[in-house]
Amino acid sequence: MAVSREKESLARVLAHEGGYSNNPKDPGGATMKGVTQRVYDAYRKSKGLSMRSVKGIQTAELNEIYDRQYWDAVKGDQLPAGVDYVVFDGGVNSGPGRSIMWLQQALRPAYKGPIDGVMGVGTLAALQANTNNDALIDRICDTRMNFLRHLGTFPTFGKGWTARVAEVRAIGKAWASGETPMVANFVDDGQAKAMVEDAAAAPSTAPADAAIGAGGGGLGVSGTLQGLQEQLSPLSYASEWITKIVVILALVSALLLFGGAAYRWYANRKAQRLAAAMGAVPA
Question: How many domains are there within the chain?
Fold first, then answer.
């Protein structure tokens, strides 16, 4: 990339991040201009400085954190126009490794390596082979939104995240097309951190296993009763009510078996989609 868009990208990220926030539902906790207290503490410690509230972060500290821990982490200066900003913004919101994973997923099938969040030779080579950065940005943002929708925090922050990603998409595609991008806007809740630790839980297959087990057991009991009915067939009064029990038990057991199998398929399917959204399997 001949010209770095770091300053212009950072200006738009800061617009999305806003000022100080400490929403108890935000996984990031206390945050100032997108920098969390945890990140700021680690930065101060690395400099041999005393801890203090992230509210007091200096401009020079802010710029250094964004430059080293986010822009350089995603190798922003080696990324195509527009893609650099899109990956950078995702890295600030969900971590550089996570944003690189979205890029790797979006580069399939040209990228054949693991979805590991490492901007290595294979990822950069797939980027160089890509001929349509506009479409690539769409795929990155679609992958990011799929991730966000699978977070347990999406009902709380989803509206803000959706608005933010929509602007990121528009700005990135404008840069990719050589146009002047729009100015980013702050949207409440769009600054909340979106972390993989808050992924929604995959549905348990335990209910399905229990239903299938019960159905199989019920069919076994119905078979036993069927045998008893044959032994009691001379006693018509006993045989008749056993027949009714056998039929009912067989029907209930069949429903449990089929219902359990259907739920197990649904649970496994949902788990696979969750894994794909989290980048655990190739997408």
Answer: 2
